[in-house]
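Q: Could you fold this chain for me?
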Amino acid sequence: MKKNNLLSNSLDRFSLHRGDKSWVIDKLHNKNSRIISVHNSKVLCDNTKQPKAVYLTPKNLAQTKELLDSMIFLGVYEETPYFAVDLHSDESAANLCQQTNAVFQDLKSLISLLDCHDIELLALARFMSYWHSKNQYCGKCGHKTKIFEAGHVRICQNERCKEHYFPSMDPAVIVLVSSKERCLLGRKKIWSEGMYSTIAGFVEPGETVEDAVAREVWEETGVHIEKVAYQHSQPWLFPSSLMLGFTAIAKDEEITIDKNELEDAGWFTRNEIKSDPRILPYKVSIAYKLITEWLNKGD
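A: Sure. Below is the predicted structure, expressed as structure tokens.
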């Protein structure tokens, strides 16, 4: 099975036990248990040049009972149960930073610096926190929802409604398009200088993923493609995408950029990419994997 660098499913999620409160509490108070804290979609890391995730224990939050009651169980990795908690209060977040000599930081800005295992856990914690923040109220009747199943379900508290809400991801496609000895890459204006990536976009209602690949490439670059082939998938929880990776062959090479989507796009040879390290996206991204696999085919 093809494996990605980010969120490679190394956690045992124990989904069948989430509804067993005594089992979850036992895991929380396990001597090995660790807690990831999130505040305003930022995660707690030490403030060094080579940052590391700061994992808490229940003792760190013992004075805040409501936090313990809202713990989100993430899973178990190598006999260590992992949980996430969202600190809604600025005061609580500031106190925790002082207590741990750490700071809340934007995870995406740390991707190139953190260990892959830390990224997996922090991204999942951030996503679950984000999902809970967006589902505080029932979309059907407007009443408050409440956390259940160790943080993996929210249920409307209106007795006449009781609508259930579950975490979900948005499907998106990403594709390495090649033509002879070149590949098609584009860049957005907000990206770091010189960085390019593969073409990507969300799947629209009623589309197959193959249709979405062809549509996105044509809309953003004007290039028509064929031979769309699935390669990999990868959760990209910034905030909630499931990336479905493909390769495809270009039927033509003339580029017409959609300026609302891309700042630039072009055809790159293997030597051009290898000679300029700025071009490649994050190493933990599926885009990097698709590009490097294409590069290696030419060796």
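A (continued): The chain has three domains: 15-134, 135-167, 170-297.
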